[in-house]
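User: what does the whole thing look like in 3D?
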Amino acid sequence: MKVVLKNLTKRFPSRTKKGDDVIAVNDFNFEIPDGKLIGLLGPSGCGKSTTLNLISGLEAPTSGQIFFGDDDVTRLPPENRGVGLVFQNYALYPHLTVQDNILFPLQSMKGKNKPGKQEMLDKAREAARLVQIDELMDRKPSELSGGQQQRVAIARALVKMPRVLLLDEPLSNLDARLRLQTREEIRRIQQETGVTTIFVTHDQDEAMSISDMIVVMKAGVVQQIGQPQDVYDDPENLFVATFLGTPPINVFDGRVANGMLMLGDQAVLPVKGAPDGPVTAAIRPEGFVLDAAGPFRCALQRVEVMGRDTSVVSTHPASRNAVVRSIIPARQRPDAALETVRFSLMPEKVHLFDPETGNRVRFDL
Amino acid sequence: MKQNQMKAWLYLLPAILFLGVFMVYPLIDVLVYSFEEKYNFVTQTSQGIGLFNYAKVLRDHQFLDAVKNTFLLVIITVPLSTGIALLISLGLNAIKPLRKMFQTIYFLPYVTNTLAVGLVFMVLFKTTDYSSGLINSLLSALGMRQVDFIDGPYWAKMLVLCLYTVWVVMPFKVLILTSALASVDQEYYNAAKMDAASPWRVFRKITLPMISPMIYYLVITGFIGAFKAYSDAVALFGVELGKAGMNTMVGYVYDSLYGDRGGYPSYASAAALILFAIVLTITCINLLISKKRVRY
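Assistant: Here's the predicted 3D structure for the full assembly of 661 residues, as structure tokens:
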């Protein structure tokens, strides 16, 4: 089921009398293709959960429209939208067994659509098998681990065959190991069912690793939509560039003069096509190449060995961050006793931004 | 004994002393009294040990009346007050404006003196030389026969006593249930909303099980409280409960000690222990049921 969001806006009235309204979601436009897994990504308070609630129908938009396929569902109550929602804390009914939890949506159905008893049991068992909890049907939620509870919540959301599956911070309550496992599980379930799935997260690894497309949001405004790799490689503004990537991108105050990017007094990279003037330059940690004759010189602080590769921590006068972090292959590890370390830069890993607006300033590669 | 165990006992000593002197010793004494036959207060002597007091009390029709009254009171008021309190709490939970005001109003009886409440009921029900009571005035306005609720037929008196009891115990139950309802996580309701569960189904399948521990708590304490009823009846019918035919079990114990028929601590003790046995049994049954029914 294709999901279309058109000029979707949600304002919350201010808590105080004189304060301004809070715009949680501001003019959100997006057409989510059928059967895709979409990650809504952003820092807390950016409006991603509100967006999810708008799609589920738990909140009504201030303006704008929501379509499932060709149906306008903007004014439909949540129960008539055919969405399955997995809550952040799962919201499993603690007094019901796993089976009764999964059966609950089916038993709540009314009229002709309500399946017979045996059919309900079959459907519940099928959903449980899909998320691999069919052996835990008689347990109470309190007797399950966090990961198992998560699966039950997904099974409960899927049992009605929703047109759209929504997950609110699905992994935030799991420990690190379980998180890796569960995110793959979500991907597998989504692929098996083919249901259009939207999930909310503040964790970029989560979003990048399993999504077909990610939506980066900030303060209610969509910053960029695209495939994870494209968004990472080609950020449209400084926020997206800094939000994505671990370790984070290195940001410098620089300027462009005669087609050269100047950081301090170093001319580090030719940037043909970029207009002269001050710029904010951002360089991915993996964009540094150790080069004894390289134009980028910085004072070496320490070398951190990470096994697979090496992290070189240094300082640079033009850097906005306290340290510049670069990642280089382990075998090229520089001598930790050096005072100055020199790099050349990979042009595709260097992004320039307007220092006023934060918008991307492009140059010819 | 280890050093800090000594310390622990030292801290506990004041409480143990007080409880021992004023709770444990009298309790044991009551048990002893109840088995001592023809105990004499003045000489502190008795004429033997046995079950005579129990037999005497159980054959006393005054006591049996009191048992009947108490049981009626318990059976009528506990379910009724809990049910009405649940309805009021659901209502309070559903409204936003004026909720605080209504909560305060419903809580007022709790902080009102029993005898003051009794006065209100007098205005409502008592027939005096100048007034037949508010309810009777209403009854005549509706063309129905007047009833003397305070000195009249048994059912009328029982009705007033039950109304009074329900009214007095309600605020505490409303207080407990509103906070229990408020503590149910909104996410459960959101989840149910996504599933299009009907309001009745949400109430039966989510709300009720979620607050069931509190309901059972109220039922158990309600049973115990109603079995111990005394002051409510006094507030309505005066201290001569036996004569009014509205005596309760605690009232019987009191009468055996201090009333016109008083001076029989052995009978009082036996009656008190019978009351204790009844309350204990009912509470155990309640706990057994709640273990099966309270869901988490």
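In plain terms: The mean pLDDT of chain B is 86. The radius of gyration of chain B is 24 Å.
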